[in-house]
Design goal:
This protein is mainly β. Among the domains are: 189 residues, Coagulation Factor XIII, Chain A, domain 1 (Distorted Sandwich), CATH 2.70.50; 43 residues. The chain is 7% helix and 21% strand. The longest helix is centred in the middle third of the chain and has 5 residues. It starts with 66 loop residues before the first helix and ends with a strand.
Length: 333
């Protein structure tokens, strides 16, 4: 893959994970998508059903190439992979433990996620929705929200629905949307809004010179971004799953400017300083990140009037993932 030959372009100021390469695994994320924004290929610029192609499933063990990455249970003390994986000392490969249930495609394990479309269905194949109206040359608000925080950063792009070749990644790359301001508004569910500084990178990006915006919300400071308490052996092994996986043992507790305090699951601190009190977390059901959204202003380019699709692309830094979704637009002169 071309990405492996690239020199990572995102300097420390734009990093979201393992700043300073302090991990025992050194710079293990140097080939993750955010380290060269926009360069990694995608299956569909509008995402695919379940995030997995036909026959693929959740974190197959063979993806993990080292013993440390293979084992993640508290007793093994690893830093990546899945608890269902086990290292085979004879073959020096990561696989399923003896007696474990056979690996199954994602939609067989989570049928409720795939009730309407088959696994791997591209977002470009979905029927159109009621379009949002924009005016060429105007400034509009665009919004996104975290469910699981993998760091990295994002960009919004346009493609005309009548474009030759259809809604392809190459088409969207031709019209990236410029950010109108250097700030982001964080809007809480109760309507409260705060404005925070944004960080944009436009060096080493694709399209060349286009701005990508850093995810402003830090996760907990360890390779996994969560369960840092287990990796540091400060929580009993019999702690409940919610307490283990959530950033907040008590999700009803008020936001704190000190994420290392008792009960908030980040005893090692954060990947980088939170932009405001309570703005940090990893996993939505048990942290604050499900209670707010990020609102950015973008410039509508002077494109011909007509029907368009807008793609939001998020290049992750913790994982080799790219998340994407599309919206329908009508742009007027």
């Amino acid at each position: 893959m071309l990405l492996l030959a690239l020199t990572p372009s995102v300097v420390q100021a734009f990093r979201t994970w393992n700043l300073g390469n302090v991990s025992a695994q050194k710079d293990w994320g140097k080939f993750m998508p955010w380290r060269a924004p926009g360069r990694a290929p995608v299956t569909s610029p509008c995402g695919i059903q379940s995030g997995y192609g036909p026959g693929q499933g959740l974190f197959p063990c063979a993806l993990y190439k080292t013993k440390a990455a293979c084992k993640t249970t508290p007793s093994s003390g690893g830093t990546g992979g899945e608890p269902d994986c086990a290292w085979n000392a004879t073959t020096s490969k990561c696989g399923q433990p003896e007696g474990a249930p056979p690996f199954r495609p994602f939609c067989e394990d989570y049928p409720s996620h795939c009730a309407k479309k088959p696994q791997g269905t591209p977002g470009t194949a979905l029927p159109p929705t009621v379009p949002t109206a924009w005016k060429a040359g105007g400034v509009v608000n665009v919004t996104w929200q975290l469910q699981v925080n993998h760091g990295g950063g994002f960009q919004y792009r346009l493609c005309a629905k009548g474009a030759k070749g259809g809604l392809t990644e190459q088409c969207f790359q031709r019209t990236p949307l410029a950010f109108a301001t250097d700030t982001t508004v964080v809007r809480w569910k109760n309507g409260t809004e705060i404005r925070i500084a944004a960080r944009d990178v436009d060096v080493g990006t694709v399209p060349s010179g286009s701005a990508w915006r850093r995810n402003p919300i830090p996760a907990c400071s360890c390779d996994s971004g969560v369960r840092c308490n287990f990796l540091n052996a400060t929580v009993p092994v019999n702690t409940t799953w919610d307490a283990m996986y959530g950033d907040a043992v008590d999700p009803t507790a008020p936001p704190s400017s000190d994420p290392t305090r008792h009960g908030w699951g980040c005893p090692t601190g954060l990947q980088f300083p939170a932009p405001a009190p309570g703005l940090y977390g990893y996993y939505a059901p048990n942290s604050n990140i499900s209670n707010f959204e990020m609102v950015d202003e973008v410039l509508v380019p002077a494109v011909p009037a007509g029907e368009y699709a807008m793609s939001w692309r998020w290049d992750c830094e913790q994982t080799p993932q790219i998340w994407a979704s599309c919206s329908d637009l009508v742009i007027t002169a």
